[in-house]
Amino acid sequence: MAELRGNLQAGQAAADTVAPGSLVLVVDDDPEIRESLKDLFASVDIEALAFGSTAALMEAGFPDRPSCLVLDLRLPGSGGLELQDKLVAAGIQTPIIFITGHADVPTSVRAMKAGAIDFLSKPFRDQELLDAVHQALRRDEVQRRQDEELRELRQLASALTPREVDVVQGVGRGLLNKQIAYELGVSEITVKMHRSSAGRKLQARSVADMVRKIELLGL
Question: Among 34, 104, 176, 212, which one is most buried in terms of CB atoms within 10 A?
Fold first, then answer.
C-alpha cells in the first residue's frame, strides 16, 4: 500500500466543504494501515475512528452525525461485503468505500450495486481516497437533512384531518379545486377551505412547495 502521507493542499480543498463534526469510520485488520489512514484524515482536519474488525465497529455503533465507512474487503470473521449486507438489511445508510488488495470484477460490481461509493484497490493514491471520502460524507449529510425534513413533515401531516388529506391528494394529482370538489361531492368553497387549512398545517410556502411535500409524504 502506498504511503498515506496525504496531499495537504489538494486534500484541504475537499475537507473545506465537509460538514463540521463529520466522521470517518475505518475498518481494517492491519494496525499500520489503520494508523496511516487516521493520520491522513487528520492531515485534512477530518476526524476518524479505526477498528480492527466489523464486530468491533458494530459494538461501538454508528454516530448520529455525517459519517462514512472506509472498509477493508477481507477481514477476520465477518468480511466487508457481509457487513454491507447487514447494514442494508438493517436500513443503515452509512456510505461505504471499500479498500482491498484482492479486487476482482464480480466482487466490485456486487459492492457497487449494493450502494458502495467507491471500490479502491491497494495501493491507491491518497487523493483518490480523500475524494471518495468527501463524496461519501457529503452524500450522508444530504441524506440526513432529507430524513430530518421528512420526519418533521410527517409530524406536521399528523395534524391533517381525513378530509384535508383527501383534498391534498387531489392537489398532488394536479387537479383543480372544482375537480377535487366534484370527486369528493362537496362545494368548491369547501375544498378551498380545506386546502388553505392543509397548506398552513404543512407550512407550504407555495403551490409548488405543497406539491413537493405531498410527494415526499407519499400521499
Answer: 34
* pLDDT tens by residue, 144-168: 999 999 999 999 999 999 999 999 9
Beta bridge partner(s), residue 70: 26, 97
Distance between CA atoms of residues 53 and 70, nearest Å? 12
C-alpha–C-alpha distance, residues 86 and 122, integer Å: 25
CB 50 within 8 Å of CB 57: no
Kindly state the cell numbers that stand for 140: 450522508
Give the whole-angstrom CA distance, residue 77 versus residue 158.
45
In Å, what is the CA distance from 201 to each residue of 29, 115, 140, 175, 195?
Answer: 52, 36, 29, 20, 10
Element at 100 (helix H, strand E): strand 96-100
| pLDDT over threshold 60, residue 16 | no
- CA distances (Å), origin 41, targets 126, 131, 168: 10, 11, 48
Residue length of the chain: 219
Q: In what order do the strands lie in the sheet with 47-51?
A: 47-51, 23-27, 67-72, 96-100, 118-121
| Predicted model pTM | 0.74
Digit-coded pLDDT (tens) for 156-213:
999 999 999 999 999 999 999 999 999 999 999 999 999 999 999 999 999 999 999 9
